[in-house]
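Session log. Operator J.P. requested a structure for one protein chain; no other inputs attached. Running the standard single-chain path with token output.
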Amino acid sequence: MTDIISYGFPKELLPPEDSLARPARVSAVHKERFQLVTPDGEQYARLKTKEYYYQEDQPFPTAGDYVLALPAAGDWQIIRTLPRKSFFSRMDSFRGTEQAVAANMDLVFVTQSLNENFNVKRLERYLTLAWNSKAEPIVLLTKCDLPGDHQAMCQAAEQTAGKARVMAVSAQTGQGFHQLEACLAPGKTAAFLGSSGVGKSTVINRLAGQVVMDTGAVRQEDSRGRHTTTHRQLILLPGGSLVIDTPGMRELGMWDAAQGLAETFPDVEAFLGQCRFNDCRHQGEPGCAVAEAIATGALSQERWESYQQLAVEAGRKGRKHKSKRGKPGRKQG
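Structure written below.
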């Protein structure tokens, strides 16, 4: 019998002992087929059609979700997605809908590598959605063993991170791993998010003490990686903590992320609502607090432009698409 509680399943969500449904946690998503950790060991399952495709209040499961499932001779049937304590999603630009990425994390490691792949704009996007997920974001800078002076990148990350902690690690030498491992605890879940080639799977392999995720090479000319991780995967580490590895994301579209914007851009939000006119659009109106802050250097033009872009994206997508179900699709990356 598998101890489902050791996989983070909350005791208060356990079904009654006489229930036909079994508690489970989604450990991987393969298009429309789900890998589950259950008290009866690892099982594969599909969604029960009536419960998920004809009821609007059922979120489609993703890696990390707690679910109830009915045992079967073949694939089990998932009949309910249980309440989430956190949920990371992004905009699927191909379909124009919300795409679920991971659920029920305590931590989100927003991962970037200390090479040409480092990008402040991308970091702002990840942090906004990470804060919006209701998990605690931590900026993880990988490959600190690479030759060169990484001080400027580290400083840029710290300036962008705000309240989020920033850590620099090397999966090759182990530098910084004592700090990373101190964040993990038995029964707690951390999701690793970042673009392809930043070293998420390599970090997880070192934490696990063995190869549990495939890794790929990074092109020398532009430091971009190949998409080695092809699906979302929940892994139980030897110390009892859990991690979710995710495929690298080429695009990270905003969903409805008002709370995440406020957490990622407190320097911008401090000036909003301080203008002379309540309906100020910050486009040259007299008494605009934002314009004054930029003029005096209290707020950078780059930060203001980043905030505007992400706010427009999040607002537009939130108005057009109300669904929070995270329907699964062919694009898992």
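Operator note: The CA atoms of residues 1 and 124 lie 43 Å apart.
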